[in-house]
Amino acid sequence: MSLAIDVVGGKWKMHLMWVLAEGPVRFGQIRRKLDGVSEKVLAENLRQLEASGIVHRELYAEVPPRVEYSLTPLGLTLNDALAALETWGDQHREELAGRLQP
Amino acid sequence: MSLAIDVVGGKWKMHLMWVLAEGPVRFGQIRRKLDGVSEKVLAENLRQLEASGIVHRELYAEVPPRVEYSLTPLGLTLNDALAALETWGDQHREELAGRLQP
Question: Of residues B89 and B4, which shows the higher confidence score?
Fold first, then answer.
C-alpha cells in the first residue's frame, strides 16, 4: 500500500486526480473545482504529481502563455485503480450519508 | 469519488486502514506502525473512522482495561476497494522508485 499512499496521500491529491481525469485543464480551472485550496498548495501538489510521473505539464507558447495539466499514461493507470474507491463510495452512499461530518 | 475521499482522505487514514486490515490492534500497536503520528492525531483519525462506520472500537473490561480497534464489515469492503491501489503500487514499483521524494 505504502507506494500508492506516497503518491496520492494527503488532503488534495485524490481530489486532484479526480479533476485531472476529465482531461487537460488549466491551473485556474483546477483551483475553481478544488474548493478551498490555496494557489501555493495546489502548485506544490501538481509539482509533486509531476515529479511522480503522474501529471504532465504542457506549456503552449502563446501570448499570453498557456499551461495545461493532464494525466500521463502512468497517471491513467492510477486513475483506474482509484475507480474502485469511487465505486465503493457510490455503493455505500446511503450507509455513509448522515455518518460523515459536514 | 468525493465520498471515498471524505472517508479516507488526509495524511493518515489510508495508512491506518492498512494497519487495521491485519486484524484487531491496540492503540499503542497502531502508533508504533504509523511512524511519526502524534497521539492526538491518531485518536482523532480513529474517532473519525469510527464515526464513518469503518472502524469498530471494542473495550474489554479487564484490569487494566484493554481497547482494540478493528475494521467493521463496511470497513472490510473499503479495504477491498483500496486493494486496487496497493496492486497499482506493486505493479509500478520500479517506475516509481527514484521518482518519489525521500
Answer: B89
